[in-house]
């Protein structure tokens, strides 16, 4: 059988590990895998090549995606999707694996509805895909942010400064919350909850009065800009406040061991679903097990925010 595989939306560390795992497992079963380039654009424009065992060598430890990716708005147009579907038919694809976040998986639902079996592997550093407890790339991104915060902490303590660290997460604060808990932030500001700047300022004043020499506020990019939060804190506390916008440093670099393992497990289950003739599914982590859930969960549900972690981070930063 011949499967297609593509990566779409923002790249996520672990995408390469999942491509490698899927290709090697599929070839091990006697199947073929067509690597589709630049996400859905590659399907619509016919950009693809057959992947071999050796073509996926030495990518396990690399971030980004060997297939490249895109944000291809034209795929929201049914006529573009029809072209892509027709191309998949001509290529005799028996099924497709889509690695990406909410948007990419919404695109995947449309393809499955048209009749091509599709398995989605949730991949986004944002950790905000509904129906799964984990998305590929999240652990690496949290580690990247935590490593940056550890470095910033040295200079923050030396100067007794407050740092506002802006992290990714346009519509979701899940990444900010995990990084805030792991990195020891005083407060986490997320798009889902309106911030109480006066309460945060009071907490900062109290910790400084107790002798603390540095403080972190982690803000998700979708909630506020770091510069605006810093200005607010300066005027409310009178302390010196600096900002760091981590940007794409969060998304690059080698995937963590956890992301590589999750990539292998998601890929293994994806192949099993396709070979079993499942018409559409999303790989999910649920109760520490990799399971297949309905693909359209992305359009029916919203990902939750771990407010317990957020509250715990605030209680611990004293
Ligand atoms: N409703 C939709 N219908 C068809 N295709 C879609 C839809 N939403 C998104 N896509 C396709 O998926 C691509 C990626 O979507 P998007 O930019 O939202 O990233 P994502 O997969 O959510 O990843 P990230 O977590 O990095 O934002 C889009 O550029 C488009 O090609
Ligand atoms: O690299 P781009 O296209 O600017 O995307 C940035 C967006 O992608 C994400 O990193 C998710 O991959 C979001 O957190 C962020 O808002």
TrEMBL record:
Its main location: cytoplasm. This is 6-phosphofructokinase. It holds the Pfam family PFK. The keyword Hydrolase does not apply. The lineage of its organism: Bacteria, Bacillati, Bacillota, Clostridia, Eubacteriales. Catalyzes the phosphorylation of D-fructose 6-phosphate to fructose 1,6-bisphosphate by ATP, the first committing step of glycolysis. Belongs to the phosphofructokinase type A (PFKA) family. GO terms for biological process: canonical glycolysis; fructose 1,6-bisphosphate metabolic process; fructose 6-phosphate metabolic process. GO terms for molecular function: 6-phosphofructokinase activity; AMP binding; ATP binding; fructose-6-phosphate binding; identical protein binding; metal ion binding; monosaccharide binding. Its EC number is 2.7.1.11. One of its GO terms (cellular component) is 6-phosphofructokinase complex. Pathway: Carbohydrate degradation; glycolysis; D-glyceraldehyde 3-phosphate and glycerone phosphate from D-glucose: step 3/4.
């Amino acid at each position: 059988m011949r499967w297609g595989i593509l990566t779409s939306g923002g790249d996520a560390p672990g995408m390469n590990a999942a491509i490698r795992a899927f290709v090697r497992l599929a070839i091990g079963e006697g199947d073929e895998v067509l690597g589709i380039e630049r996400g859905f654009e590659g399907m619509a424009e016919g950009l693809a090549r057959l992947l071999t065992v050796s073509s996926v060598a030495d990518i396990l430890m690399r971030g980004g995606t060997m297939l490249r990716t895109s944000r291809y708005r034209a795929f929201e147009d049914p006529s573009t999707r029809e072209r892509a579907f027709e191309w998949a038919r001509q290529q005799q694809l028996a099924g497709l694996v889509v690695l990406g976040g909410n948007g990419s998986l919404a695109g995947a639902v449309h393809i499955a509805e048209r009749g091509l079996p599709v398995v989605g592997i949730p991949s986004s550093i944002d950790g905000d895909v509904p129906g799964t407890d984990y998305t590929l790339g999240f652990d690496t991104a949290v580690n990247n942010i935590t490593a940056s915060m550890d470095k910033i902490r040295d200079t923050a303590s030396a100067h007794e400064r407050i740092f506002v660290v802006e992290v990714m997460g346009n519509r979701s604060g899940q990444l900010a919350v995990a990084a805030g808990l792991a990195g020891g932030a005083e407060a986490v500001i997320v798009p889902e909850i309106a911030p109480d700047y006066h309460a945060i300022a009071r907490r900062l004043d109290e910790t400084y009065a107790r002798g603390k020499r540095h403080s972190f506020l982690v803000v998700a990019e979708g909630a506020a800009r770091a510069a605006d939060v810093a200005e607010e804190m300066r005027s409310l506390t009178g302390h010196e406040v600096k900002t760091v916008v981590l940007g794409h440093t969060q998304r690059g670099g080698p995937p963590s061991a956890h992301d590589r393992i999750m990539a292998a497990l998601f890929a293994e289950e994806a192949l099993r679903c396709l070979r079993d003739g499942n018409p559409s599914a999303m790989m999910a982590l649920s109760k520490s097990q990799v399971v297949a859930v309905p693909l359209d969960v992305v359009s029916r549900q919203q990902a939750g925010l771990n407010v317990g972690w957020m509250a715990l981070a605030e209680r611990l930063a004293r």
